Amino acid sequence: MKSLNGVMLSGREVLPLIEGGKGVAVTTGSSSGAWAAAGGVGTFSGVNADSYDDNGQVVPQIYTGRTRRERHEELIAFGIRGGIHQARIAHEIAGGKGRIHVNVLWEMGGAERVLNGILEGAKGLIHGVTCGAGMPYKVAEIAAHYRVYYYPIVSSARAFKALWKRAYHKLPELLGGVVYEDPWLAGGHNGLSNSEDPLVPQPPFPRVAEIRSAMNEVGLDRVPVIMAGGVWCLKEWEDWLDNPEIGPVAFQFGTRPLLTKESPIPEAWKRRLTTLKPGDVLLHRFSPTGFYSSAVKNAFLLELVERSDRQVTFTADSIGEHTEPFAVGARGRQVFLTPTDKARVEGWLAKGFTETLRTPDTTLIFVKPEKAEEIRDDQNACMGCLSSCLFSNWAQNEDGNTNRRPDPRSFCIQKTLQNIAHGRDVEQELMFAGHNVYRFASDPLYSNGYVPSVSELISRILIGE
To answer: Count of domains in the chain?
Structure first.
């Protein structure tokens, strides 16, 4: 394999290897610090990051506010405190080597306040901000205030052009790189647009080449483009190195760092990663963000699939084929179904799916009483972890809601991500993963249950394996 050249990222020449930031408490100061210490760029998550007490124990994020707005303020305070903790840990472990970045989701609740709070409380410890899940126009302005670099995550040249035209052209000197996150291969939330078919993947090379072309047109020919999503071993990307169509390039690894000694995820999660097979990850749209995302097909995700499948349209009056009356809810309000759907509903009722829940789309879903109670409890306990939530109808606007009916086909993402990160059953919680996660099972590095250190993993990556 070609030798890897260093690349300028956040003001220093480093290995072109970046640890991808992942969600709630999944990339921490321990993992990102180790990645930086090995000469690359470590990225800790600034999304509801953990903080610790004087004994080094995780401080549980327990909400006591009576209203959503009060709990939202608690969430912001937790996020700032945790992000500062993780930055300090990463800085200490890195020992002055590599670079440390913080990853935030622009659509997370209080994103601007959390990011400002972390950068203010950890001045000099963080070198860059990676930001996606939305159109983060203001991230450049925030980064400039603290003199750190910013790295927008995009999935198309069109998205980059929109960001550049509206905001980034004002602060080009701090644009450290542009991250292309492949929407068909990356884990977690991604930027698949409504014009793209989730079932028809497009190869990344021409999409990244188009981004590079757009960058070159505005004088960013020396700014690295960062390939994220589907990156496992670099020998498969050798034709990207020293390629004028791609230009300066770095590679972001999201999935492989999950299975390292420094990775904070529970042991049960690590073991589960080694058992997955091709096709075990589903690209779906159940997230309360409204974005597509990719996660492991476990009991949690399959229940969401089945919940949505038990769905019928209804009308308030007998219209067209909707001729069959059906009583909804405790008050028995009458709606009308088609004869075919009425037969389906009767079958679901016979199997115990007796609770009827309305969706925002003039449809009904059918769940068991205990699931209906869980859905309502989770909606009532909302703490505003997103800027706008389909599941609970929260929005961080003046009214505090989306003015839409809450969607029972979705779920509380804060609850399940906190649960899986802190030791709950991995089969019963949302398990984000990239579509190459099945490769743990066949990669010789992980044979016989071996778990490498971050340093060992990077050494392996450097030889193309």
So the answer is: 2
- Same domain assignment for residues 20 and 84: yes
pLDDT tens-digit series, residues 385-409 = 999 999 999 999 878 889 899 999 9
Residues 6-38 have pLDDT tens digits of: 999 999 999 999 999 888 889 999 999 999 999
Query: Is there a contact between 240 and 1 (Cβ–Cβ < 8 Å)?
Result: no
| In a shared domain, residues 53 and 141 | yes
CATH number at residue 451: 3.20.20.70
Nearest residue to 86 (alpha-carbon basis) of 32, 36, 124, 21: 32
Positive or negative, the Cα torsion across 230, 234, 240, 246? Answer: positive
One domain, residues 181 and 76: yes
Strands 41-45 and 333-337: unpaired
CA pair distance 282, 184, nearest whole angstrom: 10
pTM of the model: 0.94
Q: 302, 270, 272: which is closest to 284 by C-alpha?
A: 302
Q: At 288, which amino acid appears?
A: P
Domain enclosing residue 361, as ranges = 299-421
> Residue 321's CB: how many other CB atoms inside 10 A?
14
